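Q: For a teaching handout, I want to show students what a protein-ligand complex looks like in token form. Below are the inputs, and the small molecule is guanosine-5'-diphosphate-alpha-D-mannose. Please produce the holo structure.
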Amino acid sequence: MILAGGFGTRLRPLSCTRPKTLFPIVNKPLLQWIFERLSKNNIQEAILAVNGLTAFHIKNQRIPKRGLRIKYSIDPPKTPLGTGGPIKNAEKLIGHSEPFLVLNGDIFAELSYTEILEAHKKSEALATIALCEVEDPTRFGVAELGTNCRVKNFIEKPAKGTAPTNLINAGIYVLSPEIFSYIPKGKHVSMEREIFPKLVKEGKLYGHVFQGLWMDIGKPEEYMQANKILLNTLAKTPKTKNRSKFTLKNPIAIDKGVKIEANSVIGPYAILGKNVAIGKNVQIKNSVILPDAKIGADSSINGALIGEGAIIGKKVRINKGCIIGDQAKIRDNISLANGTTVCPAKEVSENILKSKIIC
Ligand code: GDD
Ligand code: MG
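A: Here is the structure, written as tokens, with guanosine-5'-diphosphate-alpha-D-mannose included.
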């Protein structure tokens, strides 16, 4: 089961127009990365726990299914079920025959699902959670392990300075079907705050520590960083059909249909989505440009996130930490202060001197 019904408030305004699980990482929706990993681990079916709107967006994306059977389990309208409620809601779809995997849909993790499933089956666990080490655990669920990987303490989002360890809940679990009897039906239930502490008391929660790459894309900086890290591991010199003289500096990723005009310098760390159009003498680095955006001549973009279909005029300056919403428009000659956010479809026609949200 993939949990993907949250609202992604920390990724606004880009999450106003797409669910977190569809944010592209190096031009591929996060959910597609997840499907690919599931398929590699011989998983045959994925149930997406979502709200109606998210289901609509996901179906529209036509993500290659990689041999997976995809089913939807929709939260009731107006009642988000949290992280536990959707599991109970899908009880019939999941069935009681064997342990199953639950994934937070906003996580990129290089973890072997096969390995965690096996670890779960070998132990006495009712739930096994994947754990990884991070520098600052306060934004996450923190676990303390006892003997044989049994979790002896689990605290969701501990206050600063109080986390017992740096081992966090990676947002990947294996649950045995008995879990259904722990979750009340039709209610908002937090797995992390209500169910895991109960399992800890009963000695039924286990941890599975793993070392691979793990990234949460919940905040804009994290989303940008995730793109950067994957670019480092993936980047190859892209082929473009355009014959004009522009410069590409690796690592970069360029999707289909991108046009780049003369004298532009793209990269390092630039990701251009499908059909992005770049004018003459443009500079783009450390940035993610979503599909169909247009960047006018002589503009420079550094450290920014540009939304789908956004139109950036000529001689525009967009720097560190700026987020431009989908379909927004920045007029010619405009400079945006670092950290400026522009809401979807908004138009900016004057310089922004101090970081703010334009809505
Ligand atoms: N269907 C459905 N309905 N899904 C939901 C709902 C809901 O009402 N609320 C949240 N989700 C989904 C989110 O889309 C996300 O994929 C997952 O459940 C976790 O919710 P978040 O809101 O992203 O939680 P978090 O990031 O603050 O914390 C969780 O993830 C951390 C790892 O990134 C917790 O599980 C932490 O313990 C964990 O460390
Ligand atoms: Mg999250």
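A: Two things your students might notice: The longest strand covers residues 167-175. The mean pLDDT is 93.
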